[in-house]
Amino acid sequence: MAIYLTKESKVLVQGMTGGEGMKHTRRMLAAGTNVVGGVNPRKAGRTVDFDGRGVPVFGSVAEGIHATGADVTVVFVPPAFAKTAVVEAADAGIGLAVVITEGIPVHDTVAFHAHAQEKGTRVIGPNCPGLITPGQSNAGIIPSDITKPGRIGLVSKSGTLTYQLMYELREIGFSTCVGIGGDPVVGTTHIDCLAAFQDDPDTDLVVLIGEIGGDAEERAAAYVRDHVTKPVVGYIAGFTAPEGRTMGHAGAIVSGSSGTAQGKKEALEAAGVSVGNTPTETAKLALACLERGRASAHS
């Protein structure tokens, strides 16, 4: 079991024939992802060889879905074309669009997210590393060799911290890791992932990584308090950020007491979430939580 992505998922890559698309399609295939095609109107009809595996290029997402039954698309197109790419995928009926592209104007993201919602397409991203169900499928740019299948769910705003926690907890392993992206507007939220992990019988514990700026973590805390019965461990990036400074991600700006790491930590802890002060401490809290769960199961 996993959330959003399994070994059954059939993946298209919009922008597969570009430099980043080629590099990461090769990595996705090496991780076992069932990449069934690329999309590029100018190169339709060609087949691209990836270490002996030929992947066809289609002229449109609709054509790719019709030919292969694809249900996931990974978007590697430049920012100026991202809105058109996601709208096209949603119009074609894709179930999941994973938008890796960074630098997309916020008004474009708002527009394609609203359109995707209307069409029933889940969007992950933009400006995100994608998601991985270790041992099954990898849609995006997350390294597949730093962890293994297991029973921890991970949802994170930060790509780098996604990788660090995956590595720190590699001996336990993960059901699914979702990098939701750090832009001010994202398609899939912490709350969406918390709900999915709560319903996943193969996830025993959830690691939630947030960062300064906005109120997504405070809203996630309220959701955990009211709806999540599984243990949740958290980490907030940006404890040392000066007030009013944007830190890396477009959404990470703090004004006054709103959006501070301390405020988010306190909100999560009030909801029963154990929050680490460093990624390593967060990993230790997760291990301790799992140990307590095992001990109570045997008592």
TrEMBL record:
Heterotetramer of two alpha and two beta subunits. Belongs to the succinate/malate CoA ligase alpha subunit family. The keyword DNA-binding does not apply. This is Succinate--CoA ligase [ADP-forming] subunit alpha. Pathway: Carbohydrate metabolism; tricarboxylic acid cycle; succinate from succinyl-CoA (ligase route): step 1/1. PROSITE patterns: SUCCINYL_COA_LIG_1, SUCCINYL_COA_LIG_2. Succinyl-CoA synthetase functions in the citric acid cycle (TCA), coupling the hydrolysis of succinyl-CoA to the synthesis of either ATP or GTP and thus represents the only step of substrate-level phosphorylation in the TCA. The alpha subunit of the enzyme binds the substrates coenzyme A and phosphate, while succinate binding and nucleotide specificity is provided by the beta subunit. It comes from Streptomyces longisporus. CoA binds at T17, G18, G19, E20, K43, I100, T101, E102. Transmembrane segments: none annotated. The active site is at H249 (tele-phosphohistidine intermediate). Residues 4-104 form the CoA-binding domain. Its EC number is 6.2.1.5. It catalyses: GTP + succinate + CoA = succinyl-CoA + GDP + phosphate; succinate + ATP + CoA = succinyl-CoA + ADP + phosphate.
